[in-house]
Design brief:
The chain contains nine helices and 19 strands. It is α+β, with helices and mostly antiparallel strands and 397 residues long. It has a six-stranded mixed beta sheet, with helices on both faces. A four-stranded antiparallel beta sheet has the order 12-14-10-15, with helices on one face. A three-stranded antiparallel beta sheet has the order 4-5-19. Strand 4 and strand 5 form a beta hairpin. The longest helix is centred in the C-terminal third of the chain and has 21 residues, at 374-394.
């Protein structure tokens, strides 16, 4: 099979039902696209107790530097109500100029286009003067434990090093050419538990209601703002995402209340300094407010979530300039360089090489009727192909 057609590539990938953590045939399909181009393909299964095994793919064309990595994932989120789809989620049908299917933009479309771009480059120019690799996981939409982070470790242990990476996530909010992601905010989550004394709602003097204390602590977390933002990042923002007492009775004061929170933070903070600031706020709020006047200060516990995501910013002229100029050459648009949005697997890749993100328009990702304009697949392939040529020309800068 030829891999030069991004539409055919994407249809093949969508027809593989690779809902996390299932491989679903998607990695086999990608291997069939890359092997005829001369890629050496390895399939690595990552394991960890208490989590499903995940199959991942690493493929490399060339043995010398400079070395450009394309990273992404072929796993997809569940389809939801399949009956609500206009076209079957794994049929890859085209209608009115759009290709429908789960993963069309997030992110089998990016994988399909980069494979087509490399295939066209090889067809027109031969193998690159250096190396190109694909680092593709089946665990991006899952817990991200047995995916990119372990595949990077596996490859590095075998002597692999990289000079730059593009992650093919759908970064464009409205149209191709809108945005390149050059960094990401950090993410830190935790859970607060406030302890009270259970009792009858009609006899509050015999109980202590933890909800009163939880309200004070939650308010302290959200106000005042953590910072005003920086030159490269939005202000850090904390949201309380759940508050629960586990109490279905309206006449019972609960024994404890819990609240979960998540903060997306900029480069004003590290995970450690942010934890310290959050504890400082909670301690001050707990000391200032008892659950009820005349009672003891609020008693609370905090439990931090594992594996915080660390803030990062990429500054690499060869990478950013090559991609920006490629986008402008094909679309006529000058892309914004942004650090907005959530986290991605770029948070792992940043520890190995400079990394940016650019892919399709993300308006339908994870939705019913996820779809991509067929014309966008050709445009993104042209951008990637131009970028490949320019990056190898500029990699020594």
């Amino acid at each position: 099979m030829t891999a030069t057609n991004p539409v055919a590539n994407l249809q093949t990938l969508i027809r593989c039902p690779s809902v996390t953590p299932a491989e679903g045939g998607a990695l086999s399909a990608l291997e069939a696209m890359l092997s005829p181009l001369g890629f050496k393909v390895d399939r690595m299964v990552a394991k960890e107790a208490g989590t499903p095994d995940v199959e991942n793919l690493y493929a490399r064309l060339g043995t010398e530097g400079p070395h450009l990595m394309f990273a992404g994932h072929t796993d997809v989120v569940p389809v939801g109500d399949e009956g609500a789809w206009t076209h079957p989620p794994f049929a890859a049908e085209i209608a009115d100029g759009e290709l429908f299917g789960r993963g069309a933009v997030d992110m089998k479309g990016g994988v399909a286009c980069f494979a087509a771009a490399v295939a066209r480059h090889v067809e027109r120019h031969g193998p690159p003067k250096g190396s190109i690799s694909f680092l593709i996981t089946g665990d991006e939409e899952g817990p991200s434990i047995n995916g990119t982070i372990k595949l990077l470790q596996w490859a590095a242990e075998r002597g692999e090093t990289w000079d730059a990476c593009v992650v093919g996530e759908p970064t464009n909010p409205n149209k191709l050419g809108d945005m390149i992601k050059i960094g990401r905010r950090g993410s830190l989550s935790g859970k607060i538990i406030v302890y009270g004394v259970q009792g009858h709602a009609a006899y509050p003097h015999l109980a202590d209601n933890p909800v009163r204390g939880m309200m004070q602590l939650a308010q302290a977390l959200m106000d005042p703002p953590f910072d005003a933002g920086t030159d490269d990042f939005q202000p850090s923002n904390l949201e309380v995402t759940t508050i629960d007492v586990g109490n279905p009775a309206t006449n019972v004061i609960p024994a404890k209340a819990s609240a979960s929170f998540n903060i997306r933070f900029n480069d004003t903070w590290t995970a450690d300094t942010l934890r310290a600031e959050i504890v400082r706020r909670l301690d001050a709020a707990a000391a200032d407010g008892a659950l009820r006047p005349g009672r003891e200060p609020v008693k609370y516990e905090i439990i931090w979530a594992d594996r915080p995501s660390h803030v990062f910013l990429t500054r690499n002229n060869a990478l950013i300039a090559s991609l920006s100029s490629a986008v402008e050459a094909i679309t006529g648009a000058s892309p914004a360089l942004s650090t907005t949005g959530g986290t991605s697997d770029a948070r792992f890749i940043k520890d190995y090489c400079p990394v940016v993100e650019f892919g399709l328009v993300g308006q339908t990702m994870h939705m019913v009727d996820e779809r991509v304009a067929v014309a966008d697949l050709e445009t993104l392939t042209a951008i990637y192909e131009t970028f490949i040529e320019r990056w190898f020309a500029n990699a020594g800068l």
